[in-house]
Amino acid sequence: MIINHPLLGPRDASEFTYLGDASLINRPDWQAEDAADAFYEYGYLRDNPAGEHQELWYHEAGDRSWLVVTRDTTTHEISKVELARDVARARGRSK
Amino acid sequence: MRYSGFRVIKEALTGHKGWKPVWRDPEPKAHYDIIVIGGGGHGLATAHYLSKVYGHRNVAVVEKGWIGGGNVGRNTTIVRSNYMLDGNEPFYEFSMKLWEGLEQDLNYNAMMSQRGILNLFHTDGQRDAYTRRGNAMILHGADAELLDADQVRKEHPYLNFDDARFPIKGGLAQRRGGTARHDAVAWGFARSADSHGVDIIQNCEVTGLRIENGKCLGVETSKGFIGANKVGCAVAGNSGRVMNMAGMRLPIESHVLQAFVSEGLKPVLPSVITYGAGHFYVSQSDKGGLVFGGDIDGYNTYAQRGNLPVVEDVCEGGVSLMPMIGRARLLRMWGGVMDMSMDGSPIIDRTPVEGLYFNGGWCYGGFKATPASGYCFAHLLAKDEPHSTATAYRFDRFRTGRMIDEKGVGNQPNLH
User: Fold this and answer.
1) Over chain A (95 residues), what is each successive 10-residue block's mean pLDDT?
2) Which of B235, B295, B300, B404 to mutate against chain A (most A CBs within 10 Å)?
């Protein structure tokens, strides 16, 4: 697979390590009433879709940026690559 | 129709006209006591034990494609019970014992070969860890034998003992481990289940689960609705897709594991061997091909094919362990999709939906578990309580912190 890095251009996927579903960006509020349940779901449960999947890749052998890659899990086709920083800010994190 | 040496001779003398298909091809009935989704090794084993041990004959196995066409036909056929943790080892040793009697139980030649498995170690720390694991195995009634480098050299003189980075210091052997012919395992279970009255319905895709008031009433399929008192899901690899029909999210990601086979060679490997410094395991099939594999590709996928970096990694591991295979040509490679669970261990449990049961999360160790998985799932379906060797394989272990993490890497499925 080739991941089209937003800053560096097309890079081989072997330069990256994989973390998992990009929902891991949405860390729950530890002070919420339902924090225990929310962290259980956050830590352990996954949608695991067959089809389009947003996921976190880390450019370990490159510029060490975190990316959110939108990829089809049935074909490996990559339709979108964004900096995880931008995605996280758009979701209201790290303001 | 029983198989025997006498039968083979008789058929040979009469032109082999007496062999018949060994399972029927029935149309689904309107209702069954129990439906098992998934005609792979685990689903067929479940049907076998349900009908033979637990006396349930009004059972159907519903399979999307053809039986044995999924992961039971895609693995590297290794059978072993060399686990360490309390939640795992009794279960896998139970499975090992079932393997040892399987061919008699099924009256089917599964080509079970107890040629042994050898896990190599390369450091003092690894030796300590393997000693501990071997002791845990012995305490649970399995067999384990720690070999030093000279003993390993005697049995496997071709290994790369004096490698500068990863010298071989010895190995942990399980002599009762080995290999079995995976297709024959699926066919043997299917034949036995069919002979006990189980309907095996192929080319019948489950498209939905009919759930009303929190109770599962049956399955919607490409051949129409089929009702059932209980539905068991044994579709590891695609568990996420099927359980999504019940609105469940699972502690599972689907990943692809590649496997490889070389051209046929003269007998060179007397047992299954695993490399301790890289991820590489290998055995030699009866046809002579070296059957081997390594790491999963490491990203979510439902595609039954992997990518080249892992091919390179696996082959590097193989050649660094046994340089003699460097000139062997690769004949075939393929991929299988697996349930990678959050702690590397499986789940055999009820679900929040009444009448819906789940068997999955086998990571890349499902084949060796086939008989015990079927036995324990049949027990759960028949008695509504877990089998004594599978009490730890619960859904709620993630919520309660009772994870069975052999590798100790936490909730990161692609590291197990």
Assistant:
1) 97 96 95 96 96 98 97 97 96 78
2) B300
